[in-house]
Amino acid sequence: MIALIQRVRQASVSIEGQTVGEIKCGLLVLLGVEKDDNTEKAKRLLDKVLAYRVFADQDGKMNLNVKQANGSVLVVSQFTLAAETNKGLRPSFSNGASPQLAEQLYDYFSQQCSRQINTACGKFAADMQISLINDGPVTFWLQI
């Protein structure tokens, strides 16, 4: 399971011109589900995302996690993160989870996240437009 996390000043997700989720300061989490993923991996990844220290403390060091920074999380499904890109000029998605498994684990991740912190979400498998102001920029690839 993969999370591409970006520290943002604000972020929103829209579908057909309608905003379906938005946050102010926090993390945009683009979530990719691979074929061997399960709820245990989803839980471990969520724990890491929420504990990852990417926000500045009073000394300017990245020493605070999103909860300590009083931030929020915007979770968006992104199956292209599971792409195999080592060969050729066209990505292969053979490492990606089936749509059923991916949706189940995306929902699980999002629901568990919302139990711990203010969370907004995109819509699984929808054609979405993401707007954000990346703070830093600060972007990390987390994989379990």
Structure, explained:
The chain has 144 residues and is an alpha/beta fold. The protein has one domain (2-136): 3-Layer(bba) Sandwich (D-tyrosyl-trna(Tyr) Deacylase, Chain: A). It has two helices and eight strands; from the N terminus they run E-E-E-H-E-E-E-H-E-E. Strands 1, 2, 3, 6, 7 and 8 form a six-stranded mixed sheet that branches. The longest helix has 16 residues, at 99-114. It is globular, with a radius of gyration of 15 Å.
Produce the secondary structure layout.
Layout: E1 2-15, E2 18-23, E3 26-32, H1 39-51, E4 55-56, E5 62-64, E6 72-77, H2 99-114, E7 119-121, E8 129-143
Parallel strand pairs: 3-6, 6-7
Antiparallel strand pairs: 1-2, 1-3, 1-8, 4-5
Helix pairs in contact: 1-2
Pfam families: Tyr_Deacylase
Organism: Testudinibacter aquarius
GO biological process, one term: D-amino acid catabolic process
Features:
single chain; 144 residues; alpha/beta; D-tyrosyl-trna(Tyr) Deacylase, Chain: A; 6-stranded mixed β-sheet; two-stranded antiparallel ribbon; 2 helices; 20% helix; 39% strand; globular
- C-alpha Rg, in Å? 15 Å
The CATH homologous superfamily corresponds to D-tyrosyl-tRNA(Tyr) deacylase
What number of domains?
1
Highest CATH level, the class: Alpha Beta
CATH topology: D-tyrosyl-trna(Tyr) Deacylase, Chain: A
- Number of helix segments? 2
Give the helix proportion (percent range). Answer: 10-25%
- Terminal Cα span: 5 Å
CA-based shape = globular
Name the CATH architecture. 3-Layer(bba) Sandwich
Which stretches are low in confidence, meaning pLDDT under 50 for 5 or more residues running?
Answer: none
Name the beta content range. 35-45%
The helix/strand order is EEEHEEEHEE
Overall pLDDT score: 98
In terms of structural class, how would the helical and strand content be classed? alpha/beta
Q: Please give the number of β-strands.
A: 8
What does the largest sheet look like?
6 strands, mixed
